[in-house]
Design a protein that fits this description.
With 406 residues, the protein is of the alpha+beta class. The protein has four helices and 20 strands. The protein starts with a helix and ends in an 11-residue tail after the last strand.
Length: 406
């Protein structure tokens, strides 16, 4: 009995000591929490602004026209009249092929035309002469036929004059056929002259478009063939195209908005994000890519300043519409947590609460909030790492948070 009583007394003492220790710790923690200083943070007021509804994509810059310059005649490449990598205008002289063989061919064709014209003139003269002779022979034949009927002239003589008249008539028909033949030869040789002139003109290779030349692919002195290897490639860079793909879920919205007016497209590179080119949506492809689930779009840019270059990869912003009253916060205010995105909202007593939000889209340094905060509320934009729900805050100017100590 005495041993049992001693054990009970020891147990009660231990419980009492533990209770005192627990109470002391709780009091110290409460004092520590209540006595923590305010956390310096930067804040901003949730605004209501007009924000565009945009589709973001990665696009590829394409020339509006690519022309491979090839020779249309064979011969020696004599000279080059352009500078590689420079702009050229339409019809500007680029290259020259040796024209001497084609000048000779033109001279021969022109001589053949002159010969044909002389033969035509001679055939026409023969027709006139033979026609006169045929008319005279026909008159003689008629007269002798009448005299033969009256018995004055022999029948044989009448038959001879008739044969002479028939021969003269057939000679006239032969002369007419010679005229037609001469005319056909003349037309053929005139075509040969035009062809020779065209070949001679092809000796001067001119630019079919205005654009930017690439590297010269065949040097002067080389023999070139008809429609063989390209001599130079010209890309038309003003205007210029940007091709990009968007998810097929956006197709209906894009088609509906594009039916009323052309949609605005912006493009910029990662190297120079502040240099933005603006154009208009031009083409919506006629099929969805089943492998990627995207639809290809093409926008046209005037590119007068040559901001875009063929082959570049660019960031593309396709503006579908403008939301007139969007709830907007600085993007720095949005934080990522285990349960999704959240934001610290400042309450009237200068403490903060963690509030889950839904971000509709981010444009530059602004985030459009679909749910979670309302215009007029104050949110924390810098210094969130020191915060916890219920923490007291001290608003300071942006950029000064890291310079202050607790």
């Amino acid at each position: 009995m005495e041993s049992s009583a001693r054990m009970n007394l020891t147990y009660c003492a231990a419980v009492l000591a533990l209770a005192c220790l627990t109470a002391g710790c709780s009091k110290q923690q409460a004092q520590a929490v209540g006595g923590m200083p305010s956390v310096p943070v930067s804040v901003a007021v949730v605004a209501q602004e007009a924000m565009p509804e945009q589709v973001r994509a990665i696009g590829n810059v394409e020339p509006s026209s690519t022309v491979q310059i090839k020779s249309q005649v064979a011969g020696e490449l004599l000279s080059v009249h352009f500078t590689e990598g420079r702009d050229v205008e339409k019809d500007e002289l680029l290259l020259e092929i040796d024209p001497r063989p084609y000048k000779d061919a033109l001279a021969q064709a022109e001589a053949a035309v002159a010969k044909d014209r002389a033969q035509l003139t001679q055939a026409q003269a023969n027709v006139g002469r033979d026609a006169a002779q045929a008319k005279s022979a026909e008159a003689d034949a008629y007269r002798y036929e009448q005299l033969a009927k009256e018995g004055v002239a022999p029948q044989m003589q009448a038959m001879q004059t008739r044969a002479t008249a028939d021969a003269a008539r057939e000679s006239t028909r032969a002369d007419q056929a010679a005229i037609e033949s001469a005319r056909a030869s003349l037309e053929s040789d005139q075509s040969a002259v035009e062809r020779a002139k065209l070949d001679l003109a092809y000796c001067e290779i001119r630019s079919p478009v205005s654009g930017r030349t690439g590297n010269l692919l065949v040097n002067p002195g080389n023999l070139v063939k008809v429609n063989d290897v390209p001599l130079v490639v010209i890309n038309q860079v003003a205007p210029i195209f940007v091709s990009f793909g968007v998810p097929e879920e956006q197709l209906n919205a894009i088609r509906q908005r594009n039916a009323g007016e052309k949609l605005v497209v912006e493009a910029y590179t990662d190297a120079d994000p502040n240099r933005i080119a603006r154009g208009l949506l031009k083409v919506i492809d006629n099929t969805v890519d089943t492998n990627t689930g995207t639809i290809r779009l093409k926008a046209v840019f005037d590119n007068a300043a040559h901001t875009l270059w063929p082959g570049q990869f660019v960031n593309v912003l396709l503006t579908l519409d403008t939301q007139s009253k969007a709830t907007v916060v600085p993007s720095e205010a949005v934080q990522d947590g285990q349960r999704g995105q959240f934001i610290f909202v400042v309450k009237p007593d200068q403490t903060v609460e963690s509030r889950p939000i839904t971000v509709a889209r981010t444009i530059g340094r602004k985030s459009v909030i679909a749910k979670g905060v309302v215009p007029g509320e104050t949110v924390v934009t810098d210094g969130q790492l020191r915060l916890f729900p219920g923490a007291k805050i001290q608003p300071v100017a942006a950029g000064k948070v890291d310079n202050l100590t607790l």
